[in-house]
Amino acid sequence: MNAAKILVVEDGPGEREALARVLRMEKYDVLTAENPQQALRYLDQDVDLILSDLRMGKSSGLDLLRYWEAERPNTPFIMVTAYGEVDSAVAAMKLGATDYLTKPVNPDQLLDLIHKCLDQRRAVAPAVRARSARAGRGGTSKIVGQSAVMRDVCAQTVRAAQTESTVLILGESGTGKELVAEAIHENSPRQGGPFVLVNMAAIPETLVESELFGHVKGSFTGASADRLGRFETANRGTIFIDEIGDFPQPSQAKLLRVLENRTVTRVGSNQDQSIDVRVVAATSRHLSQMVASAQFREDLYYRLNVVVIQLPPLRQRREDISLLAEHFLADLCQANQMPPLGLQPELLGFLESFSWPGNVRQLRNCLESMVVMAHGSVLTLDDLPRNLAQPAAQTSLPVSATSDRTLEDLQRAAIIRTLRQFDGNRTRTAEALGISVRTLQRRLKEWDFRDDASAPVNP
């Protein structure tokens, strides 16, 4: 049996080494970190237990606990507190810590507690592996980020997961709304049930009701057999309705009835079917504005707007870009069976300064293109995709040259420049930017963009 891997997080070098020495004497595989930021680098490793100090300078073990609980909720977490910090220890237990110890740490007490925690972990390991396998089949990725705003998002996600309340996830296209929805399901009491995804932007309006609520044989041309809808398929689990802002107005009243009564009526039937489903919805549109303009039902909006999680665009959490880039780079190299690649500092500087209108999805697409077309062992500015190479050359402009331009202006310029790069092909432009064609078309319509060379790039 392989030795259990324990991560020790302590800012005091003497205490950190002392704890590591005790654990290594017991033949544990020990990793060390001096703060939560360093500790997060080990998320991809199979850490069996975390031993973390509560206070580490300006950092807190509670922040690490929140984030680790969101990403790896089944990892035992032991918090080490100073004498008199019992209230903080209790707070840690409420956030998901397995147990706590007070300083100075008694080695025998520490080892006994670790043995107990690891024994408990081994007892539930088969169930944990089963959940991980389901997540893997569904393509679930980690929510990567150590910025304050993303730690807050992860904490909100974990809290929301423990309830049965409807959750509305807001954020621009490509910010990771689906990952948050999956995390809510995987951390909820419904984790053993199905997770069903419905993307309203991808369903023709005439098929929405059949797709969601099902139909009976003969109810319309082509209905050759009874069919379960997505709501019934998600029974005892979670249904995630992505791009809820694109839900057709004629069908919104029927969706409201399903949410209120927890019953569905298949197309062509008069019989109600009871369902037990957790609803999570998401949109990149401003639903409140749509309500004001009578594009979205007000009563449906308030039925959905119970627990709200707002995802920030990538430009508002630039401190996460290097972490995301390294994470994607490692995944892409492994997926393409390539040796690990490095990132040139100048390239990383550009990635951190770019506006990323397509957000995290566009960043990943950019790195995938560079990995596939890489010429050497280190990615450089020369490896950037063509549609980003021109902005990279402009990053040396003085701040005053762009200081009077809004983020909306920069997004508009980037999108239109990419559109022209692909000779007006909107499908290729949307793919390069990491956004949907519908989102691209909506943005261009809002800007009254004309498909001709006279339309200005710079607003």
How would you sum up this structure in a few lines?
45% of the residues lie in helices and 14% in strands. With 459 residues, the protein is α/β, with parallel strands linked by helices. It folds into three domains: 5-134, Response regulator (Rossmann fold), CATH 3.40.50.2300; 148-310, Rossmann fold, CATH 3.40.50; 316-446, Helicase, Ruva Protein, domain 3 (Orthogonal Bundle).
Output the keywords:
five-stranded parallel beta sheet; Helicase, Ruva Protein, domain 3; Rossmann fold; globular; 459 residues; disordered C terminus; 16 strands; alpha/beta
Structure description:
By secondary structure, the chain is of the alpha/beta class. The protein folds into 3 domains: 5-134, Response regulator (Rossmann fold, 3-Layer(aba) Sandwich), CATH 3.40.50; 148-310, P-loop containing nucleotide triphosphate hydrolases (Rossmann fold, 3-Layer(aba) Sandwich); 316-446, Helicase, Ruva Protein, domain 3 (Orthogonal Bundle). Helices cover 45% and strands 14% of the residues. The protein has 19 helices and 16 strands. The strands form 5 sheets. Strands 2-1-3-6-7 form a 5-stranded parallel β-sheet, with helices on both faces. Helix 18 packs across helix 19 (437-446). The longest helix is centred in the first third of the chain and has 31 residues, at 107-137. It is globular, with a radius of gyration of 25 Å. The N and C termini lie far apart (63 Å). Mean pLDDT is 82; it is low at 125-141, 394-405 and 452-459.
